[in-house]
Amino acid sequence: MGPGLYSDIGKKARDLLYRDYQTDQKFVVTTYTADGVAITASGTRKDELIFGEVQYQMKNKNIGFDVKANSESNFFTTVTVDELGTPGLKTIFSFIVPDQRSGKVELQYLHDYAGVNASVGLTANPIVNLAGVVGTSALAVGADLSFDTATGNFTKYNAGLSVINYDLIASLILNDKGDSLSASYYHLVSPLTSTAVGAELTHSFSSNENTLTFGTQHLLDPLTLVKARLNNYGKASFAIQHEWRPKSFITLSSEIDTKAIEKSSKVGLSLVLRP
């Protein structure tokens, strides 16, 4: 097992601290046709607005096809080809209708000691992105760059480092063109109950502000997961997720401002149905 992709640096801590927490109401239903095509319909209510989305997914051998339409009349199309001539190589072609400048070709390559992700926009003056990681399953060092050929400027340059043990992952990431530095850790306390703790400290050099977030999760039983997090601004969040049937989940989450208890808490609900 190699170092993965650049996006994998710090991912365990990010998932623990930020995934499954929401303050919207979301409903997702997935069905499968006889030939294996997946059709997913979802609706999200945010404040007084409702957003809808329909997704069509199919795969034939090593070629995947994904089309998604939303309530704003946008169509997102992605074609994925796995291991085209080379083991570990993935080719992704994507575009959005009606945005004529959205076309993009992306290459992902995974090796035992490296991971590369490169993409280029299909325009006359495209944005070129290159992200790479070198190392092993125990240590990974990488960088993420974006270059705008129209202006001749770098729009993004980030760097990251991750040290991985079987139960502990520590990461250091420099973001926002060197303006912010994030240090995070993830500790798997008990694999049997998926009990884990984690934290992330982010420092902004321009504003000289620090954001510290702690989080934890624990399985109450094999089908019920609880999560909690707290940051240094007094925002506390809680989530409980229950798998009431295979691959179908109901998630209830809430956010409270402990420094303004008089304000009402934010509550989110997500229901995912799969056959």
Describe the 3D structure:
With 275 residues, the protein is mostly beta strands. The chain has one helix at residues 11-18, and strands at residues 25-32, 38-46, 49-60, 63-70, 75-82, 89-97, 104-111, 114-121, 127-135, 139-148, 153-164, 168-175, 180-190, 195-204, 209-221, 224-231, 235-245, 248-257, 266-273. Helix content is 3%, strand content 65%. It has a 19-stranded mixed barrel.
Percent in strands = over 45%
Structural class: mainly beta
Shape: globular
Beta strand count: 19
Mean pLDDT over all positions: 94
Q: Major sheet, described briefly?
A: 19 strands, mixed, barrel
Radius of gyration: 21 Å
Number of helices: 1
* Low-confidence runs of at least 5 consecutive residues: none
The SSE string, one letter per element, is HEEEEEEEEEEEEEEEEEEE
How widely separated are the two ends?
32 Å
**What share of the residues lie within helices?**
under 10%
